[in-house]
């Protein structure tokens, strides 16, 4: 069950983050607030179902960081440093794309300046990020089957002759 929810939450993360990276109309402060609220609801559900050890919440980390990126101030070099230290699960390309797509919803917000985005790129240039922008939503985690040893010992097992397993010998 834990593995199923980890896979499901990864798919939610990948599809939501890919939509965020491809659609200018959803890159805003209010979307960041809405995403963060919905993610907290998912995390609360995991805790309520005692699935916090499944790794499902960790698969949502890039989406959480993207939501926080949308909510942070984006003006000073201190803001750029905060973004660089916070967004460790996002690639440089993803951070820059979200900042480029950021669209102010009301008159109190301002567009992200080109100088600010260049500052971010300069600070993140030493990262060894993969070149891909979008997440692979078809990625599958390996299925792990726990080993449960049997309490029955091999010398107590009786093999019927009808199975034709004469080549097996008790040692």
UniProtKB/TrEMBL annotation:
One of its GO terms (molecular function) is GTPase binding. InterPro entries: Dilute_dom (IPR002710), Vascular_dev_regulator (IPR052072). SMART domains: DIL. Residues 1-126 form the Dilute domain. It holds the Pfam family DIL. This is MYO5B protein. It comes from Sinosuthora webbiana. The gene is Myo5b_3.
């Amino acid at each position: 069950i834990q593995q199923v929810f980890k896979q499901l939450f990864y798919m939610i993360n990948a599809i939501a983050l890919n939509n965020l990276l491809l659609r200018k109309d959803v890159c805003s402060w209010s979307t960041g607030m809405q995403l963060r609220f919905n993610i907290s609801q998912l995390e609360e559900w995991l805790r309520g179902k005692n699935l916090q050890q499944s790794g499902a919440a960790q698969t949502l980390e890039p989406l959480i960081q993207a939501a926080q990126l949308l909510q942070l101030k984006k003006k000073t070099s201190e803001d750029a440093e905060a973004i660089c230290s916070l967004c460790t699960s996002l690639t440089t390309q993803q951070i820059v794309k979200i900042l480029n797509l950021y669209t102010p919803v009301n008159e109190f917000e301002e567009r992200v300046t080109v100088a600010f985005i260049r500052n971010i790129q300069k600070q993140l240039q030493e990262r060894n990020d993969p070149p891909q922008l979008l997440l692979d939503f078809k990625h599958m985690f390996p299925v792990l089957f726990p080993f449960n040893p049997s309490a029955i010992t091999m010398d107590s097992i009786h093999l019927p002759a009808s199975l034709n397993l004469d080549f097996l010998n008790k040692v």
